[in-house]
């Protein structure tokens, strides 16, 4: 999940802080730098695939580093930052929206970490002022929160309760976090402001927000410890009748397999790389009865050389072009499959489907999928068809546009000219149009049709089959009869002797 | 939450006035010019009734195509009284039902001196809205905390004709009173739900030649429970356009115009022209492209004449390289329906999709270039628009799976796992019996998967049994079955007998993957490993008496009595019993040795024995060493541990050799053995290549660690001898 670090470079960040332990003095900027470096170190250990960007802001903002996984380069760039004027958080948040939308679009969840000093500003650009204006922009709010993408805001405030401004500014920060939604938080150092307390604060924030997702990929008795990257987020959705809030289970259990072509391209609420867990800790022997394919790496020698079920599963899914249906929680499913990033590197991917047992209409209720074969009945196949056909696949009658009506009439006339060969078609179409007209009360059409049939008789060429005139006159006559206005009535072809004689 | 579009009621005016013509003339005589003097037939026109019915049905067509569930529409026809055409029941929520009900209603009656009014319909609509839909009932009666909080929001769309604004105003007031009255009734009832809010949409229609005295007004709040709006439109041509504009906001729909659809001309089949088709879908399908770059989204949004909504124009793109048959990165998926279902371009696109092909839609960018933003594809007769990710992916440049843990191993049993997957392929099934929560079909599949993986070594080098397909098939498949027939038991037994026969004939077991490192285990070792693994396999699959019969067959054949279950025998007992068993074995083998003396020179046997006992710890461990690691531990201890009789049979020759060897053992003990640590289970362990970590080359060494497994070697290797 991409992360934007909003880095305060206002003048107040220069404020010196005396370290009680050794009498040294650091500026808040030094402390912030130390904290951010710790955070980047945390990433390089726990989430190497994290994309991080840094925006420095004062009254203006500047993208110091675009999104990158090269954390060292960020560290270097941070070293070179200078101080500017005052703090305008609103401007900075606008910058975040622009940056994220441009890079990741509106669907990728991102985390925003605001690193600031808890200094309270005044005037038109100050946080207090911008927040007090929020209720005024109703509807089309100009305020950058909530973010234009699924975002989570964490505020890191380098101030201690001894600083009087903190009490004023904390409620404002909390308001920001609340507006951003998705339960972010405000972090302040515990105790005095030291390198240590700042580091601890960043560590706490990282553990809260960036804890890697370590789980178990299971398939019957085979299993493998895996890391999901990016870590799955809590699912939250308001539907018509309920609020769904779900957290994924740490056990991802493969329940069965399907062809990738049958799965189609269902909507995924998120996608995650399923990476075999590399750090091997030998856990208690409690589950030694199970087949622990991964425990051989107790040797700690060459992780690449320890057989992992994850790799086997990936290989087989890739070779067979199949996908595994996984259970991610109660009535919550996902699909694992082999995925290649355009290049040769292929990987095991988990697409998380919407919670519920019917997230993919053409797969039907997933709880009704079975692998057990029965010899008595033929094996049903995908896709599962809905009970009712959609309008576009059932030849429905829509005459709102005149062209629709015209083409239906022309179709009947085309058949009429080919009588008696098309007798069945002629009456089938005629009855279809007639029924539609009756049901919407379009009686003048029925009379019009009778007229047109009679006129058609007069225009028949001399060489026309005698049936033509007979059937058309018959149809026109019945159309005018009151009993033909019954929807359940069908006009039947006139029985003529010419058909059999002529053949 | 609780949107108004969950419940919509159309109230259709069926008073005699609606029988009059809309005065909107329709040419229906299109007979191509039949010479001079040809007089076309007089045009026909629809009645006000026909116009309102077809517009309302079109509205439903779109709703039910896009939302097969959860968006309900009811029809009430009002003349002398209210006539209700359908209920909230899902079975009655379809066009066919409405059409046939309408057919029985027929055209509006002739004018009479009676009380025809649309008020009857409004009253019935309020009553109908107080009835719970299935989901409302379920949520109201559910025992969760928000059970009481179900809000009953709804919408009434009235298609009628009023004299002037004043009568329209009084109609709104009447409806307000109806709602209040109805809510009182609902409040005193258990099964009715009060209306929390109703959105009244009045569409006043009039013949095209008449100027209406009724003026439109936008949404206004009549009271806290009622908002209303009035639209006054001509019946012919305007009404359905008005409704299709309204539906966009009622259901939050979006419109996409697929442009540049190549279509063969009817007349000229060799050339093709490009057409546009407009489709409707939930507006959310556009979120990702419209929220992004403002300049880009301005480029694709247009508003067509006669509509008050914007359509997004995306270009047809013949799929190249990417198709629906692979997993696209799809972040949203919505049903679509064509705006004009019967037009030729629409049906062309629809049929193309229904035939199983898919269409990519691309979006031009201001900065130049374009990108694929959507995928149109049909699944099971329904067409969906899939919103694809257009932005950068957070998953870019991932590490390959081969770089991670277990990635360098090349002998995974991929083909076998593929077979296992095929045997556990899921199919959509009909519910045959009333399923309980636990006993879903999927849970039964999970149980089957569990059974199929009970004994499943994941690498080729970790198993011997499964590399012997030509000897053991179809036994491994049969044993996985839930039930075994007598014939299948016999089949399995025969496989065991034939293996016994092979062994007694001293035929080596041939495996296709043998000799990865040039040397496989020797023949006797082979049989020992095979029997050990087979027993372990049979033991985990002992689910029925029939399965047990197969296991017993093996145990009997190998002189192993059933009471000698894993864990039952301990090391102490081993000596006596095994000694007896192996004496028999040894005598038998001696006999055979004599017989086969000419074909198999004694030196050959001898070499193999020496090798088996003097295997240096530095040499790659034989297959046997890795097998137990993937076998459930309890089993590996039980069957291949000290109490197993499948350890290599000990012959007199062995005894003699090991003794003489021990006597001749003058060389210093191996370094590894001297430095080994004793594990709790009695095996010795030492680290091989202790310096390999410093100098990690690409060497593929699966067994980086040597376990001097006395337990798996058998008595011949016992240091006591």
TrEMBL record, chain A:
**What's a single GO CC term here?**
integrator complex
What is its subcellular localisation? Nucleus
* InterPro entries in the cross-refs: INTS14, IntS14_b-barrel, IntS14_C, VWF_A, vWFA_dom_sf
Q: Where is the VWFA domain?
A: 2-205
The record's section on Pfam families has: IntS14_b-barrel, IntS14_C, VWA_2
Transmembrane feature ranges: none
According to its UniProt record, where is this protein mainly located?
Answer: nucleus
Q: Which keywords label this protein? A: Nucleus
GO:BP terms for this protein?
snRNA 3'-end processing
| PANTHER family in UniProt | INTEGRATOR COMPLEX SUBUNIT 14 (PTHR13532:SF3), PTHR13532
Q: Which family does it belong to?
A: Belongs to the Integrator subunit 14 family.
**What's the name of the protein?**
Integrator complex subunit 14
From TrEMBL, chain B:
Query: GO cellular component terms?
Result: integrator complex; perinuclear region of cytoplasm
- Subunit description: Belongs to the multiprotein complex Integrator, at least composed of IntS1, IntS2, IntS3, IntS4, omd/IntS5, IntS6, defl/IntS7, IntS8, IntS9, IntS10, IntS11, IntS12, asun/IntS13, IntS14 and IntS15. The core complex associates with protein phosphatase 2A subunits mts/PP2A and Pp2A-29B, to form the Integrator-PP2A (INTAC) complex.
Query: What residue spans carry the Low complexity bias annotation?
Result: 624-634
Q: Mind listing the UniProt keywords for this protein, alphabetically? A: Cell cycle, Cell division, Coiled coil, Cytoplasm, Developmental protein, Differentiation, Meiosis, Mitosis, Nucleus, Spermatogenesis
Which BP terms in the Gene Ontology apply to this protein?
A: cell differentiation; cell division; centrosome localization; meiotic cell cycle; regulation of mitotic cell cycle; spermatogenesis
Q: Which organism is it from?
A: Timema cristinae (Walking stick)
The main location class comes to: cytoplasm
Give compartment(s). Cytoplasm, Perinuclear region; Nucleus
Q: Where is this region: Disordered?
A: 613-642
- Family membership, please give it: Belongs to the Integrator subunit 13 family.
Q: What is this protein called?
A: Protein asunder
Q: Which domain of life is it from?
A: Eukaryota
